[in-house]
Design brief:
Shape: globular
Strand order of the largest sheet: 6-7-8-3-9-10
Pfam families: ABC_tran
Protein name: ABC-2 type transport system ATP-binding protein
GO molecular function, one term: ATP hydrolysis activity
Strand content: 25-35%
Distance between the termini: 41 Å
Structural class: alpha/beta
CATH superfamily of one domain: P-loop containing nucleotide triphosphate hydrolases
Organism: Mucilaginibacter gracilis
Number of strands: 10
Radius of gyration: 18 Å
Family: Belongs to the ABC transporter superfamily.
Length: 239
Amino acid sequence: MIMVQNLTKLYATQKAIDNISFNAGPGVLGFLGPNGAGKSTTMKILTCFIPQTSGKASVCGFDASTQALQVRQNIGYLPETNPQYLDMYVKESLGFIAGIHKLHNTNQRIAEVIELTGLGPEQHKKIGQLSKGYRQRVGLAQAIIHNPQVLILDEPTSGLDPNQLVGIRQLIRELGKTKTIILSTHIMQEVEAVCDNVIIINKGQIVANSSLTNLREKHGNNSLENIFIELTNLVPASA
């Protein structure tokens, strides 16, 4: 579903990503790295927000550089900043996004995603009246409303309380049974809870690309947090 080949992005002389390659199919792929490692740049290229300097990226067989419209039709994106129209009501905002995607069964699909994301109690409120956690749910609902084959989720559980986390993680796992999902997060427990495979990127280069099980075995069944620290050359604050 996602193919990345020798992808490089330069900002002036700085390499944000440096000749990276990976594939992702159905399931949940954890895309990890410290701040500034190149995660957001990669996701912005895959979602056609910015062009690469060199290399190729494709989504569902469509080239991200030359077939941006087709890529966007097949992808759902929840960015970390999650921009929203705060004066819109929840159902109104979902109807707006459904209209952009030219859905025909709008009311039925809105009801489905409200149920999936647990927005029922808040569906008649303006987005500006919602807590951060519920705004995050609205962003996720907007990302999945057109039933895309690929989801790219950047910190999707930001602001959720522990009870909300359980439901959203369960939803992500369920969606991953039939969709290709790239999940970027700094919460290692979240990766362990929902991801099948893991990519760790550091200083623009991929330093690990493996199933979660194989990655642990390779590193002596260490915790993912310790493996992350080891591979990205970080040291704990207490050291």
